[in-house]
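Deliverable D2.4 — example input (structure tokens):
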């Protein structure tokens, strides 16, 4: 299954405009967020971001598009019932809306709505401290008090730099629940203090390390 494109916004706009904001397989016409830019020849196979190698697909057609260039050509030429896909698309949106509403209520009630972060585990749908929760405090303290880079700290605890940055900026460790841009007080136990968390954010900012 193809992954979401990481091309520039300028290139994406050029491709969408060229394709008249329509999926080149089923003909779906939609907004930017409902359309994907697909690489005909995948980057891992030597493809690039030239306009000739990019094509507009709707989210559904993009999901099922094959990675192989020749297979994709056959896939693109296969006939598809656009009306059937539209019915599926509406159903998917309806289910997504209901799911998001339920998750929003769950977050407002203080319950965690996603995968348990490092240092926690889910037990009976409730977020609780795991056996290695003490290491969360260690990571924060090491970064704050030692002259150590994220690369070095990541190697010490077995994380990538991006994975470590996510840990150091994760408000779940404060006992908070963040969902859809809103932060709520959680019902789970905090693993670090707000003072320590704020010191970490200040150090990350001084070092020019974004989220």
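Example output (designed residues):
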């Amino acid at each position: 299954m193809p992954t979401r494109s990481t091309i520039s916004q300028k290139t994406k706009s050029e491709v969408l405009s060229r394709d008249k904001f329509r999926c080149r397989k089923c003909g779906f016409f939609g907004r930017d967020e409902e359309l994907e830019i697909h690489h005909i020849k995948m980057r891992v196979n030597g493809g690039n971001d030239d306009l000739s190698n990019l094509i507009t697909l709707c989210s559904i057609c993009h999901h099922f598009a094959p990675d192989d260039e020749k297979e994709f050509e056959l896939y693109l030429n296969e006939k598809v019932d656009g009306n059937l896909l539209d019915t599926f698309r509406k159903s998917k949106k309806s289910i997504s809306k209901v799911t998001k509403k339920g998750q929003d209520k769950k977050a407002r009630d203080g319950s965690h709505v996603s995968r348990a972060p490092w240092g926690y585990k889910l037990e009976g749908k409730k977020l609780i401290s795991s056996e290695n929760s003490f290491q969360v405090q260690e990571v924060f303290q090491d970064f704050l008090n030692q002259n150590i880079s994220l690369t070095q700290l990541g190697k010490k605890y077995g994380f990538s730099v991006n994975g470590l940055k996510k840990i150091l900026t994760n408000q779940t460790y404060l006992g908070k629940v963040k969902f859809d841009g809103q932060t709520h007080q959680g019902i789970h136990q905090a693993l670090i203090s707000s003072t320590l968390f704020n010191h970490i954010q200040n150090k990350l900012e001084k070092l020019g390390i974004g989220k």
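The radius of gyration is 22 Å.
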